[in-house]
UniProtKB/TrEMBL annotation:
SUPFAM superfamilies: NAD(P)-binding Rossmann-fold domains. This is dTDP-glucose 4,6-dehydratase. Signal peptide: none annotated. Residues 6-309 form the NAD(P)-binding domain. The lineage of its organism: Bacteria, Bacillati, Bacillota, Clostridia, Lachnospirales. One of its GO terms (molecular function) is carboxy-lyase activity.
Length: 327
């Protein structure tokens, strides 16, 4: 029998995929989405009618403690994904990141604690590791608050840890490494390359070629989140979600351009480069803890995930509902 589950950030890239899978597994899902006049419900609006109608849509703001408490009524399990995520934006608006990522997380945890929920998953980011001192990076690697965004995620992690230590609150901190797939924002690395190829560009503009990353397909990430939620062993733990496989940006771009059957040059544009203070050259995550704890294994190769992402963009970019969110 399924559970009554709350997903914050349900209107976003990963959150919408998570809602979809939770419903498929027989859960009763309440999707907490950020109200706006642009596209209420976000990516959930792109679901087919049957799936959309099976989800309880709650429009609110995690900065509003009262609204969060109301959304928590009757909930057994929480996946907290809602977050501000832009590093550049965080430099000139740090207060917004503290309000959403730290205070918003506190609101969610307090409401969940009052509701006596059985499990909360808090999604953090691999960016808290900063410049890797060794690879693969495991969960005991030192963190580095090199931007207000990263500091806000470290602060939220500390709150989650304190709730576990103080109240035995059943929360797991999950650090995600470079998730990609359908519904990802258009200016993210992989969709950006795909989009440039679809537009018939004679060259692909990138921010760099030699950096390397550990990319996880969104469906594998969702499977990991659900697997972590199912085990009590994860309570109070920090857990990486990664493939433990790295690839350079140049090699990644060659895989994508190869899918289109064209050999195009890659151009490094200084305007797309990150500043040195937020530039992580190499990031490869250890998933040993996740595998041992849950038995999770990634099911999608990078090429398979890229193929599905290309197919989704090709099939859906002209759909008016999708197009609005895709821009």
């Amino acid at each position: 029998m399924g559970k009554k589950v709350l997903v914050t950030g349900a209107d976003g890239f990963i959150g919408s995929h998570l809602c979809e899978e939770l419903v498929k597994q027989g859960n009763d899902v309440r999707a907490f989405t950020f109200y706006n006049a642009f596209t209420p419900g976000g990516w959930i609006c792109s679901f087919n009618k049957e799936l959309r109608n099976s989800i309880d849509l709650f429009e609110g703001d995690i900065r509003d403690a009262g609204g969060v408490f109301k959304a928590m009524q009757g909930i057994e399990e929480v996946y907290h994904l809602a977050s501000l995520i832009s590093i550049p934006f965080s430099y000139h608006s740090p207060h917004a990141f503290i309000e959403t990522n730290v205070n918003g997380t506190l609101n969610v945890m307090q409401a969940a604690k009052r509701g006596n929920i059985s499990k909360m998953i808090f999604t953090s980011t691999s960016m808290v590791y900063g410049i890797a001192r060794y690879i693969p990076v495991d969960e005991v690697h030192k963190t580095s608050a090199y931007s207000p965004f990263v500091a806000s995620k470290i602060g939220a992690e500390a709150l989650a840890e304190s709730f576990y230590e103080s109240y035995k609150f059943p929360v797991s901190i999950v650090r995600l490494f470079n998730t990609y797939g359908p519904r990802q924002k258009k200016d993210a690395l992989i969709p950006s390359i795909i989009n440039q190829m679809m537009e018939g560009k004679d060259e692909i503009v990138l921010g760099g070629l030699t950096h390397s990353r550990d990319f996880s397909y969104v469906k594998d990430v969702v499977a990991a989140l659900i697997a972590i939620a199912k085990t009590e062993k994860s309570n109070g733990e920090v857990i990486n979600v990664s493939t433990e496989s790295e690839i350079s940006i140049e090699d990644l771009a060659r895989i994508i351009t190869g899918k289109f059957g064209r050999d195009v040059p890659f151009i490094v544009n200084d305007r797309r480069k990150r500043s040195k203070k937020m530039d992580v050259y190499k990031l490869l995550g250890s998933n040993a803890k996740l595998k041992k704890m849950t038995g999770w294994e990634p099911k999608y190769t990078l090429e398979e995930g890229i193929t599905e992402t290309i197919e989704w963009i090709e099939n859906r970019i002209n759909n008016p509902i999708i197009e609005n969110r895709w821009q």
